[in-house]
Amino acid sequence: MKAFNHTNAKTLAEARTALAGGKATLIAGGTDLIGTLKDNILPTYPESLVNIKTIPDLDYIKEEGGMLKIGAATRLADIAANPVVKEKYTALAQAALRVATPHIRDMGTIGGNIAQLHRCWYFRKPENRFPCIRKGGDRCFAMMGDNRYHSIFGAVERCIAVHPSDTAPALIALNAKIVTNKRTVEAEAFFDVKVPGNTVLAADEIITAIQVPTPPAGAKSAFLKFAIRKSIDFPIVNCAVLVAGGAPRICLNAVAPKPYRATKAEAAIAGKPINAENAEAAGAAAVADARPLTATKYKVQIAKTLVKRALLATV
Ligand SMILES: Cc1cc2nc3c(=O)[nH]c(=O)nc-3n(C[C@H](O)[C@H](O)[C@H](O)COP(=O)(O)OP(=O)(O)OC[C@H]3O[C@@H](n4cnc5c(N)ncnc54)[C@H](O)[C@@H]3O)c2cc1C
């Protein structure tokens, strides 16, 4: 691991100043970032890390003004255990609970979870051995290589790495907004970027909070995840749904370079009762546009089944 400076920011302004110039990187829980530094996966190495956990008031969960507000440095374990989140924003609590292990959830934050880098073993190969498109290179090594965990909905700029966040689809299904020190962005738009971008964040932009509108009375949400290991693993596919009135919101992740809003599934079940037959049809509609590679065909069936089961979990 190369040496770097470490700054404990006391204010957002201090953190932003430290980020200016592009030679520093934010650190929250460090559970994703430190691994990328140890493995030296990126072509450029930060000269310093700016710790945002030392900024007061970035760690909270409260309901206010018809919405749930979560500070960006709030730990996943606290979100998973919060009684209000569990009751009214169930998909988010369930997603936070399914991230990694208790130790990682005790360190990892919601801000870091949505800003984490993509999963692809070529992209993450130690010592930057594969200078892929996501690193400014000219090719996707996974496209012709081992891509069994990659996209089933095509590429973005020829990159087929998947976005691995468990909380991202829950936030999109719950119609959340991401608040930064510069603006407020719909959760769905937050990931809508061209490669090599990971999120819409600028180099000196800091997520400060997540806002989730309180679902109407009677609304139900659910999150399901399929992973190879049950104890600790990134999703092969995950899925979050919100059923509020006749207009459900359904989002998959780990199936594309950004979270995939399953709008055809939403249309298929809109206004209909949630039962086995309609949920099955919604699952089929969710994968109607899938274009899997030979090695990722199995993920299509998993995505279809997760949509069906997540919908049925709200009944
Ligand atoms: C073994 C292992 C298993 C894992 N399993 C899962 C899993 O199952 N599901 C899953 O979703 N994730 C998983 N992760 C990934 C990661 O640990 C979690 O996503 C965690 O929530 C990251 O949060 P963090 O605070 O540690 O982020 P950090 O590592 O501190 O930061 C991650 C990235 O986000 C940026 N960042 C952090 N906070 C902010 C902010 N406020 N504003 C702007 N940028 C910010 C950092 O600069 C960095 O680029 C796993 C990681 C490991 C090591």
Any overview of this molecule?
There is one protein chain. With 315 residues, this protein is of the alpha+beta class. The protein has a domain at 62-115 and 162-312: Uridine Diphospho-n-acetylenolpyruvylglucosamine Reductase, domain 3 (2-Layer Sandwich). The chain is 30% helix and 18% strand. It contains 13 helices and 12 strands. It has helices at 12-19, 33-38, 76-81, 83-88, 90-97, 102-107, 110-115, 141-144, 167-173, 187-190, 263-269, 276-286, 297-312; strands at residues 5-8, 24-27, 48-51, 61-64, 67-71, 177-180, 184-186, 207-213, 220-226, 237-243, 249-253, 260-261. The protein has a 5-stranded antiparallel sheet with strand order 4-5-8-6-7. The chain has a 4-stranded antiparallel sheet with strand order 9-10-11-12, sandwiched between helices. Helix 5 (90-97) packs antiparallel against helix 9 (167-173). The chain is globular and about 55 Å long. The N and C termini lie far apart (50 Å). Flavin-adenine dinucleotide is lined by residues 25-33, 35, 52, 72, 76, 99-100, 104, 107-109, 111-113, 115-116, 164-166, 201, 206-207, 232-234. Flavin-adenine dinucleotide binds next to strand 2, helix 2, helix 6 and helix 7.
Defining traits:
12 strands, 5-stranded antiparallel β-sheet, alpha+beta, 315 residues, 4-stranded antiparallel β-sheet, binds flavin-adenine dinucleotide, globular, 18% strand
